[in-house]
Amino acid sequence: MGDGEGVLERTLRVLGCFTDDEPAVTATTLAARTGLASSTLHRLLATLVAEGLLTRGPGHTYAIGPRLWELGELSPLSLRLRETALPHMVRLYEATGENVHLAVLDGATPATTTALYVGRLTGRQSIPTLSRMGGRGPLHTTGVGKALLATRDEGWLRQYFEAPLERETVNSITTEPELRADIARTRALGYATTREEMTLGNVSVAAALPRVEGLPPIALGLVVHLARADERRLGPLVVQAAKDLHHDLRVT
């Protein structure tokens, strides 16, 4: 916290305090996490609320405001990718009745990169999942993540494997040789699979799109219950949906 820190840096520190687990945070918690002086923090919070970037909630809490959401919707991930993908996701859902996920590769370095979910469709019969739009998932335990990993070159993968692979369930792949074998399988089949590697009882099938100019690497996938996981049927459906989406993205 240097003396030369500007308003933007302070604002980003405040916004970085909001998470999946804590979408609403008290001023006391914000002060503790940011280290900002009480007077500075309260002036900043007042400005952010006035501009709609934050909103006040019950129990003296703050949450992300409508203006910040509105600005986020102007991203190409929303305007171009998600809007173009929605009809393809609907068709995939109608053909399977299962959760449909749209994700992109996002991270400052390979070792910190994750799958960022930018679209999701689910129904009453779909199995519950941990994902949400705007949420993130590990690359090595999710179908979309593995599909994205299979698009990376050797130099990128070497850096990726410098970080440990965290275990999400007893079935998670956490060693480099095993994951490299899985990546090779994904490349050979044209789609990735996971079996209870992120959530017990869930299986995912996903395919990456060829590169689209102006967008990060993209993957489209399904999450289904283990009992309904017919990979031979679902794999081709996902691959075709990814091809169709890629075609439409190239002309947008």
From TrEMBL:
Residues annotated as domain HTH iclR-type: 5-66
Species of the source: Microbacterium ureisolvens
Keyword presence, DNA-binding: yes
Annotated protein name in UniProt: IclR family transcriptional regulator
Alphabetized UniProt keyword annotations: DNA-binding, Transcription, Transcription regulation
Domain IclR-ED: 67-251
Pfam hit, one: HTH_IclR
